[in-house]
């Protein structure tokens, strides 16, 4: 490896980013970023819609948790590429074609386990005395979950959503393998065409997006979580 | 303040049977409206279980608990609990809510208008000795243990419940704070006329606070009596041991110099000049200590308010009262 070649790829990537041609048409950076975010957001939202109610309910009742959490964890064990392979025939049989839908289907199992597990663990972890006090004062069971357990479990719930989102953003690149859009296009096409500046630009964009998602969650958490749950020293 | 009248609480042959043991065994007693009943007994004697059956956190295996004549099992548990104040040792304040929000919990559940909830919360914080200006906007993590227990009491009182259940509410504080909290509880309870069922391990706390004391052992009621009677006539060896070998002295702590049989035949001027002057409200226990300390046989007693001389208290009289089975 000559050092000059390494320097070149940085220079080339920088040049790639400054080329106005990469900001027009259907392959424009902003278009790919939008596709990527759209796909990721939808995957996380659907996963949350499934995993949150189950995790919250199981956490509140403490029932069936063993089974549900283990089922969820199977999702963690399966390689994303394999999930994509499974998702293809499902999408085909539903007439959804290539690209977006099979990718979406393959991303959901990836997002389920952290959301469900964190919601469950968060709710279970709420101080039993606080719950007994709530029940003893006449809060209904849904009332306890909504106004006591969920706000107290919020930091963990949000961190589950964050982990899921970051994983999904990173993995959504695979969609390009099945003719999907998103930032994976640059990577897959860059590899196929041996255009390493494009490949590297795509990788950088995905990494940046993942970090931004992480930061955005951190900001949101700071606002959404009650000041009473921070350490006493810096509350208020 | 318009006082909420307390309700009568009656246990009728209440039993709670778990798979491997009986936690509460045929418990029957009645707490009259507006009185404080203290449940004491060794660990595992069924005190907490008894308390939790009143607000249906635990369901009895058999028997009935009646509040003002209505069986609690006939009522919706959630509605029932909103009318019963509940304080536990761990307090269980909601960490994500301010003290004011915590105190407003039951009024919020009852759908009170916002400004009424607010003014009630402020009023209650003041009542339990937490300056609303300083404490209302704080979170539980920013309070000391004793302050949290006060907030817990305020929260339980918020909707003027006719009945309060308190399970070792002052367990985790030092003796001085505990003393203050006890005094505040008594004042508030007299003020509001609430019926209180109060669990403690501390027989002195029981004697100080209780209108009635229920002594429990192995899920059974061993004796149910006012503190004075309990100290004077322990039902058996277990009770005698439980109230302590100094029960005579404890009993003196319940009696006052003013209530004693004073000798008014002696002139004020004729009393031993070394003798301490006692206010009528001084307990006989304190009077005895003072007299022994000064090495005198007698002491003059005066009215608390106007200092009027009432008569002379003698060691012989105290000794006689100790012996008497009144
Ligand atoms: N859910 C349960 N299952 C089985 N046994 C129980 C259960 N809850 C309580 N017990 C038993 O019932 C008995 C009474 O318990 P309870 O909590 O009422 O005691 P307590 O008088 O409040 O004791 P302490 O002073 O230690 O708080 C105990 O022996 C306890 O082990
Ligand atoms: Mg107990």
Description:
The complex is a heterodimer of chains A (236) and B (326). Chain A has helices spanning 3-18, 29-61, 65-77, 80-93, 100-124, 128-136, 141-171, 184-192, 196-224. Chain A is elongated and about 65 Å long. Chain A contains nine helices and no strands. In chain A, helix 1 packs across helix 9 (196-224). The model of chain A has no long low-confidence stretch (mean pLDDT 87). Chain A has a single domain (29-226), classed as MetI-like fold. Chain A is mainly α. Chain A is 76% helix and 0% strand. Chain B is α/β, with parallel strands linked by helices. Chain B has two domains: 9-243, Rossmann fold (3-Layer(aba) Sandwich); 252-323, CBS-domain (Roll). Chain B has a six-stranded mixed beta sheet with strand order 6-7-8-3-9-10, with helices on both faces. In chain B, strands 2-1-4-5 form a four-stranded antiparallel beta sheet, covered by helices on one side. Chain B has a three-stranded mixed beta sheet with strand order 11-12-13. In chain B, strand 7 (163-167), helix 8 (175-192) and strand 8 form a beta-alpha-beta unit. In chain B, helix 5 (114-127) crosses helix 7. Chain B is globular, with a radius of gyration of 22 Å. Chains A and B meet through helix 6 and helix 7 of A and helix 2, helix 4 and helix 7 of B. Bound molecules: adenosine-5'-triphosphate (ATP) and magnesium ion. Adenosine-5'-triphosphate binds next to helix 1 of chain B.
